[in-house]
Amino acid sequence: MAGYFLELISGAQSLIAGFGVTLRALLSPVVTVQYPREKCPVGKGYRGHPHLIVEDETGRPKCIACGSCMRQCPSQCFTVKGEKKEGDKRKYPTVFQLDFSRCSLCGTCRDICPVAAIEYCDLYGIAGFTREEFHYDLLADLPGRAETGVNPAAQEEKQLAGDI
Amino acid sequence: MEPIINIPVEILRPLLAAAVAIGFVFANATVMGYLERKLAGHFQRRLGPMEVGFHGILQMPVDGIKLIGKQLIAPDNVAGALYYLAPLIALAPVSLPFIVIPFSPGLQAIDMDIGLIFILAMISFNTIAVFLAGWSSNNNYSMIGAMRSVAQNISYEIPILLSLLAIALMTNSFSMRQIVESQRGYWFIMLQPLAFVIFFISALAETNRAPFDLPEAESELTAGFHTEYSGITFSLFMIAEYTYMFLNCSIATAVFLGGWKGIPLPFGEYTGCIWFFAKAYFLMFVIIWCRWTFPRVRFDQLMNFSWKYMIPFSLVNLCLTAIGVKLWQAIF
After folding, report:
1. Residue B85 has pLDDT above 60, yes or no
2. Is residue A141 part of a domain?
3. Lower CB count within 10 Å: N or C terminus of chain B?
């Protein structure tokens, strides 16, 4: 007989405790991320496509157009040309193209660069309809990146998301 | 101005009430469907419907249109007319109890002497509909769900009636209006907390809500009695279920929570219904809260709980109430 009431009391206690648990969940903030509209920050160590780093003082690429990346790349992704113009102290790249459709994100270019001018960007969710859409002109993207540190394509995506 | 047709007010009132009630049945199902999905989301720290309209507010109308647009597929060898009759029997009686529910002093279609019994009788129709649906579907799972529903409803009808009988002993009346009016300065939940708890738990079981949703256990019975129903026939069952929820909550509100009584508002004759709806929908919230808190009980647990706990406790409560009422009369 004692067990009968004991079971009732302990059962009721656990039910009320359960109510507390769910009420706390109801009142705590939502953890859902509305993905296409809002995005999580990219984790440390994420490998987006390689991009050029900008010199802070001049706003021009750090790259000295030595061509190491072009030579070392196992998939021949890069096309680099450079020249030393009148008044410049060093060579600057005039052409710096990346064929991302062949890139395996191995990081050799980044490691080999003597002036640490190549770094992974944090762009993700890249999609396209043709091969040519993955042929990036990294120099053309540079001005946008100088301000934000990310690829302008990603910037554009964020603006689009803001409009929805 | 002379009225064009002279309809006696005794006929007009219930007719008008029935029309409003039918509208309310569908509105209630829409709102509750939305709230349930939204609350289900937030209980799990999700967002719930977000896409259709502002915060998904148009989700339920859109779902309704979708369900109406769907083809009605009847499997082979269903029991013809009965198969199509079942959802109608589920929905048809739900608007009747509204005519005796006292939303506020001025908003009650008819005050029957047997109002409480009338509501309970109409609510019990649900069992027939569920059983008919399960039996006529020619499907094993539906049949099991229907059998469970009947066993469950019979077991839980008893504590419902016994707990409400305790109130009837105190008020000396089954009239809903009189029950509400006799709660002067206090609510019956203060005098009869046990009866309220018993009634509320039994109401959960009566309306086939979690944790007593065995007749429609998705994981075991693939939705139970309404497995074979598609489109609008399915949604008729769901609308009926939400309405039965509301009816049970409004009984609890009228009988235990003082009905329309609360902080007095201007035009209390009619605005009392604000308190009524606030209380009823709070109870609905608790029902949804239960659903997302407790796991489904096993069938033997369900039966044990009713026969070993609910019925003895409500009988003891009834006896104590009877003695209390007699003593009260003897003393005062």
Report:
1. yes
2. yes
3. N
